[in-house]
Every structure is written in structure tokens, then in C-alpha cells.
Write a structure and sequence with these properties.
alpha/beta, 8-stranded mixed β-sheet, 6-stranded parallel β-sheet, 17 strands, 42% helix
């Protein structure tokens, strides 16, 4: 296949702590690079790019760069109908930036336009159409990894819509639903192609946005874990988990992901308490906007939740009730520690209410850990026969899953084995094949 220059947005890549979409963007860039395409990353961080290359490089990696002032925002919006140009960020290696560079996916060039994605939203609200952007010798294809009101000039623009949760489960997100609908509706009308990550999401896009199904391509997703993670022995990982977290390998349950309504954490906790399991439940995730409901049985208020910091240590707000029931909540963990926790868990528990794909399911299966997941959204599509499926609205069913996985070692072994086989369906090699077919259509 002929090599293309492809722009991938850095909207989620720039986040200090990763999300499912940032994982998607990293894996997309990685696989496109492996296929042989040249990758431009387009960021919209607060740094400014000037004539001095060292200062520009320093500014790009500095999270403390000030925000745009009101006057600067207004001035930018007055000229935004003419479009916004991005400038190349010089990555010379003069800045010792090993941690950020570890997050950056493979790329040929990096560009940045200050506050690009924030300005795109304001532009859309004011003018009612997508912001146009450009940069020198720009790519022939722009792959936007999230539905945003922005286009790259003189390029084929394709957009990944992971799911339509704000429209299907509007009570689980804080999005402005009217604005979100206008954005995805315009993408449905004007995008050169729409990409999604499951047949469930494709069906939603076709039906809710009235799109011809031939314009929606499902590539699924993949997980490319570093060899340094996959090559570690189970003994070494077990020792690490015991030493750092005080947890006995294969004798705890694990949930990981954002603590938000669609993840169903409240019912997971309730079911765990009802199951009277002798194994701890570990919850790894950042608190979000409805914590008071989701974590009510832990005694963590929404106000307390806002004060939490990412320490990587056991949460000091765990109450006497949760201690007695052996519930441990941890904040965001780096990849190496999180994968160690996943590998050593008896089962990952992920009966979410709706997912476009459900990366935790695949990540757990790839690492050889049994999975409990739900029957809603794309979860059963991704899990296949490789996971224990429950009705995510039925606390009793989730509690029974805890008991079954605790007491039946043969069942655990069964789902570990089937999960590993199921994960091969979403291997990087197959993902590359699906991406190749996608770009042939452009």
C-alpha cells in the first residue's frame, strides 16, 4: 500500500493522565507507523511556538505555561473564521523529557496551535461551523480520534466516534447534549469517513445519526503493551504486588477505570459487599462528577473526592466499613504498576452499563486474567465466550459472579484460557490489517 502522511490529533494525548481515547490515539499512531505511513501529531496545548527552537521545545513540555487570557481568546475568535495555523514543535533532545516522550507515540513531526481544541469548540458555538486549521506541508489525511468541530484544510478528514453514550445514556455524562448532537450530526454529514470501534457503536451511529452504513468503518481496537511488561515473570510481578500493595496474588478482585456513572462502580461495591467475599476488592480509578452516588458505601463524599490527589498509595479516606470488607481504592497508577495488578488479580470486574469497546476487557484478557463483564453495549461483543457475563443492573447477579469466581478455581482457569484466545481477535496484527483496509478507501 502506498505510504501516506497522516495527521493524528493530540487532543487526548496531551492529558496528564491517560484515558481510553488517549490509548486509542497512541495505538493508532503506532500501528499506522508500523504499516509505513508518516505521522504528524497535531497538539493544542497552551505552549507557544516561536523563532527560538529551545524556548519552543521547553514550552511544549512545560505543563505550567499560562492559559490564554480573555482578551487573547476574543482576539483569536475574531480571526478564527480565517482558520488557525499550527507551527512545528522542534524536538531536538536538548530538553530531557523522558517521561513525556514515553507517552508520545511514534511520529515524524509534531505541530501545535495554542489552545486549538478549546478555540474550536468556542468557534463552533459562535459561528455554527467547524474550525479550519492548517500547517506547512500538511498531511493528506487527518484522523481525528474524537468527535471535535475541526477540519484540516486540503485533506481527507475522518473522525472516530467511539460511542454515542451522551445520546444513549444522557444521564451518565456532563456533555452539553444539544451541542454534542450538533457536532456528531455535522460529522455524519461532512466527514470523508467515520471510524468506530465495534459493531454496536456502528449500529448506533447508523441509526441515531441516519448515516449510510457504507460510510462507517469498524476497525475495532487493539492493545500494544510494551515487551517490558509482557516479558516479566509472574513471580516477579507477584512479588511486586505483594510488596507495594500488600495483596496476595490471585486472591483479590480488581476494577480499573474512571469512576463515572456508566462504569457501574456503585453496583460493583454493593454486589461485593453482598457476596461476603473473603478476597479484597481493589478499585483503581480517578473520582469524577457523581462520586457521591458511586462510592456512597465507601463513605467518600463528592467534596472529599475533589480533594483527592494521585499518590499511588492506599486512599486515606477508606472508612471503617470498607476496611472491614477489604475494599481498597487507589488513584491513578502508572502503566507498569497497573498491569502488575491486572496480571495478579483473580478476576477483573467490569460490568459497565455501556461501552463503545471496553478496553479493560481486552487488556485483562491479553494479560491472562479472568473477566466478569456485562451484557450491555459492546461488552458481550468484545468478550465473546471469553468472559463471565452478567446483567449489569442486577446486583444479585454480580454478587453471584464474585462468589463463583472466588470458589471455583476451574472456572477461573476456564476464563483465563478462553480470554487469552479471544484477545487474539484484537491483536495488533489484525488491527493493522483493518487499518490498511480503511486507508485504502481514501
Amino acid at each position: 500500500m502506498q505510504s501516506k502522511r497522516i495527521m493524528v490529533d493530540g487532543y487526548n494525548l496531551a492529558l496528564e493522565k491517560g484515558t481510553g481515547v488517549s490509548t486509542y490515539a497512541r495505538n493508532l499512531s503506532l500501528e499506522l507507523s508500523r504499516i509505513g505511513h508518516k505521522i504528524d501529531l497535531l497538539y493544542g496545548v497552551r505552549s507557544s511556538t516561536g523563532k527560538n527552537s529551545l524556548v519552543s521545545e521547553v514550552s511544549f513540555f512545560d505543563p505550567g505555561v499560562r492559559r490564554l487570557g480573555t482578551t487573547e481568546v476574543v482576539r483569536a475568535l475574531l480571526s478564527s473564521p480565517l482558520g488557525i495555523s499550527a507551527r512545528q514543535v522542534p524536538i531536538t533532545g536538548k530538553v530531557i523529557a523522558r517521561n513525556p516522550l514515553r507517552i508520545l507515540p511514534p511520529h515524524d513531526r509534531i505541530f501545535n496551535a495554542r489552545n486549538l481544541y478549546g478555540l474550536a469548540r468556542w468557534h463552533f458555538r459562535i459561528y455554527g461551523h467547524f474550525l479550519q486549521t492548517e500547517y506547512e506541508n500538511s498531511a493528506s489525511v487527518a484522523h481525528w480520534t474524537y468527535p471535535m468541530p475541526i477540519r484540516l484544510r486540503r485533506a481527507a478528514n475522518i473522525y472516530t466516534i467511539h460511542d454515542l453514550v451522551p445520546l444513549r445514556l444522557p444521564y451518565t455524562t456532563l456533555d452539553n447534549k444539544r451541542e454534542y448532537y450538533r457536532i456528531v450530526r455535522d460529522i455524519a454529514r461532512k466527514a470523508d469517513l467515520i471510524v468506530t470501534v465495534s459493531e454496536t457503536s456502528k449500529r448506533d451511529i447508523v441509526e441515531l445519526l441516519d448515516v449510510d452504513e457504507t460510510r462507517v468503518v469498524n476497525t475495532y481496537q487493539s492493545v500494544s503493551l510494551p515487551d517490558s511488561v509482557l516479558s516479566r515473570s509472574l513471580d516477579a510481578v507477584s512479588d511486586e504486588v505483594a510488596a507495594i500493595f500488600g495483596l496476595e496474588p490471585k486472591k483479590y478482585f480488581l476494577f480499573f477505570g474512571a469512576v463515572e456513572p456508566k462504569k457501574n462502580v456503585g453496583r460493583i461495591i454493593e454486589a461485593y459487599l453482598a457476596s461476603q467475599s473473603k478476597y479484597p476488592l481493589v478499585i483503581v480509578g480517578q473520582l469524577t462528577w457523581k462520586n457521591a452516588n458511586d462510592l456512597r458505601l465507601l463513605g467518600v463524599s463528592a467534596q472529599e473526592g475533589q480533594k483527592q490527589k494521585s499518590s499511588g498509595a492506599i486512599d486515606p479516606t477508606i472508612t471503617a466499613v470498607s476496611r472491614a470488607q477489604q475494599i481498597v481504592r487507589l488513584e491513578y497508577l502508572p502503566l507498569n504498576l497497573l498491569t502488575s495488578l491486572i496480571r495478579c488479580a483473580r478476576s477483573v470486574v467490569f460490568p459497565s452499563l455501556y461501552e463503545g469497546f471496553g478496553l479493560p476487557i481486552l487488556e485483562a484478557m491479553q494479560l491472562g486474567t479472568a473477566v466478569i463483564t456485562g451484557t450491555e453495549g459492546s461488552n458481550p461483543e468484545i468478550a465473546g465466550e471469553g468472559a463471565y457475563l452478567v446483567d449489569p443492573y442486577d446486583v444479585g447477579a454480580i454478587a453471584q459472579a464474585f462468589r463463583d469466581m472466588q470458589n471455583d478455581q476451574a472456572m477461573v482457569d476456564h476464563y483465563e484460557s478462553l480470554g487469552k484466545e479471544r484477545a487474539k481477535v484484537f491483536s495488533p496484527e489484525r488491527y493493522s490489517e483493518r487499518l490498511s483496509e480503511l486507508y485504502k478507501r481514501l
